[in-house]
Amino acid sequence: MFLAANLPETIPLFPLPRALLLPRARLPLHIFEPRYLAMLEDAMATNHRLIGMVQPGSGPKDGENSLHDIGCAGRLTGFSETEDGRYMITLSGVSRFRITAQIDGFCPYIKASVDWSPFTADLGSTEEDPGFDRDGFMQTLARYFDARDLSTDWDSLTEADDELLINSLSMLCPFGIEDKQALLESPSLGDRRETLTTLIEYAMLRSPGKDVMQ
């Protein structure tokens, strides 16, 4: 459990297209590139063990690595090493942040100064969505699974509380980078649910394809 005063001013960043992390959710990752292996080792040496997940931007920006301004930091809570030196890790979402500056230096990965203050509510308890029509949403979701030929653990989704359901689907559904960013930046769980519903309904209007939940 983090307090706002305990959050660091700088964190390492892991830009990974369409890999979305949200507060109080968990994201499994496979780490194998040398620069991110170095990032992982450095993060493990800190007290906070935070890594910031961000979406890449659409192009170069003032000579810096092009990244979206808002990401979400996760604490390293799961770790295992494969025989060939790669790592399977789990990040548990702590809080969103806004990048204020990328830090120059000889580090092989990106580090940034970040501002946590716009997202203090992320450190609170499980968020609720009073306006959630769960039955209607689940019917729409079933049609979406059929239309896109998606497979998932339906029993787990049915049993999940509202926040876990909405956030898990936001993270797992095969949306594009900008769509994932819109879900991340949603001010509240209700806003995220509305954005998610819109994306699902739009996806069903397009030609059905063969997708796999991430």
TrEMBL record:
Residues 11-204 form the Lon N-terminal domain. SMART domains: LON. InterPro entries: Lon_prtase_N (IPR003111), Lon_prtase_N_sf (IPR046336), PUA-like_sf (IPR015947). Gene3D superfamilies: LON domain-like. It holds the Pfam family LON_substr_bdg. It comes from the Bacteria. This is LON peptidase substrate-binding domain-containing protein. It comes from Harenicola maris.
